[in-house]
Prior knowledge:
- The complex is a heterodimer of chains A (about 260) and B (about 300).
- Chain A is built from 13 helices and no strands.
- Helices cover about 75% and strands about 0% of the residues of chain A.
- With about 300 residues, chain B is mainly α.
- Chain B is built from 13 helices and 2 strands, in the order ααββααααααααααα.
- Chain B has helices at about 1-10, 20-40, 55-60, 65-95, 105-110, 120-130, 135-140, 155-180, 185-190, 195-225, 230-235, 240-250, 255-299, and strands at about 40-45, 50.
- Chain B is globular.
Amino acid sequence: xxxxxxxxxxxxxxxxxxxxxxxxxxxxxxxxxxxxxxxxxxxxxxxxxxxxxxxxxxxxxxxxxxxxxxxxxxxxxxxxxxxxxxxxxxxxxxxxxxxxxxxxxxxxxxxxxxxxxxxxxxxxxxxxxxxxxxxxxxxxxxxxxxxxxxxxxxxxxxxxxxxxxxxxxxxxxxxxxxxxxxxxxxxxxxxxxxxxxxxxxxxxxxxxxxxxxxxxxxxxxxxxxxxxxxxxxxxxxxxxxxxxxxxxxxxxxxxxxxxxxxxx
Amino acid sequence: xxxxxxxxxxxxxxxxxxxxxxxxxxxxxxxxxxxxxxxxxxxxxxxxxxxxxxxxxxxxxxxxxxxxxxxxxxxxxxxxxxxxxxxxxxxxxxxxxxxxxxxxxxxxxxxxxxxxxxxxxxxxxxxxxxxxxxxxxxxxxxxxxxxxxxxxxxxxxxxxxxxxxxxxxxxxxxxxxxxxxxxxxxxxxxxxxxxxxxxxxxxxxxxxxxxxxxxxxxxxxxxxxxxxxxxxxxxxxxxxxxxxxxxxxxxxxxxxxxxxxxxxxxxxxxxxxxxxxxxxxxxxxxxxxxxxxxxxxxx
Lengths: 264, 299
């Protein structure tokens, strides 16, 4: 048995692990709970109500911020998955790790540096900030995750399948559509979900690259935190939580978490 | 096989790779050069033009900046140390000591879930828990730990809690992935050869988990140094931090030249620290190994 030869006893580690989970989940649970609270003061539980959700969907500011967030996330996801996949397929004959190394800075560099970089690029090109800059920034982050994930899957594919398809008289386009794309689809869906969630989650790039007219939901929440807070934010947070959990549950269904963990 | 190679190498046009490469170069590498370029010039009002100078970098070593850097370094060090102390046992437990081996992915999934929430929402969650009229302060009051519901917001503690909350998963995941792949027999072998727990940890587990620790350092220490939102929202914006200065220079003072220098150094400074720490670690282990061999040789 390994356990009695480890640095700390199993029980100490168990306690720390349980503590970690409590630490991670107490805020989440409290917020979700209080988003259904009737009270305005947000401290006493006065019964179940959906009024903060009603308020959320009747506020034009929140709705427009929500629209911006979703639009940007969809565009960033589409762009990063499409151009990322094209890149992976077109460069697949190059076996060296250097190819994905090119895209490591997107993950490793702190977001604040990416953000001021994009800001200065847009100032340099004299393009006004707005949807374009947001989509550019979020696509950049998405690419950093799409390319390693799709490539990991693509390299695993059996070349015999491609050969068989070509031998059987399929054209290159058909081979791509009927053989390669279906085989790659789990990684495509997974990376799309990751790109989408990351775009929704992003704060710093949105902070630097949005204009006063085009604000994402995270900028709205930030502004609220700076001025005054009301329980509507709890409802927004719960929506965010639901959105990202759906994403990650689908990811787990595709076993991508495992894949990413063992490959990176 | 030849045909497949030809298919990928020749028939799929190389230019399919261009959009992603162009995107990467245009919006990541070129902007870094632009930032670097900005940081090397200073606007001189008398001449009415920009002059090449290293002034923006030299001023980072002035006392005012030194204090900010010290604040940020201290915050980043505290965050990283707490993250390692919490993340290592957690990752270790889930990877090696858990009885329910099949549930591992599920446990990791639940570790990741909060960090997949919006970053600002994570910060807000602690804002909600630590403010004066919150569940937590009321609970502490009810069980008699405090004489009245207290405000736990806007101090160093609240900031640290927020930092650890946001960065912890980035330390756990890399550590988990190396520990999980580690050959467990090595631990047993070490114990069989007579090493005690601490020797096994020092000589076997720690060196083998070093890559994960290093990745964790990169993902925690560097962004923590340039963090802006958490000190701003949970720390009450009392002290200036490196990230605060970047934001102020870009958004408030519109001094992009100086801002670029501060922004680039927000990566450079912690990177230098990590690289020198790792270098020292390698040097020490190299010297120790040489000593061991010398002793063996002399015997």
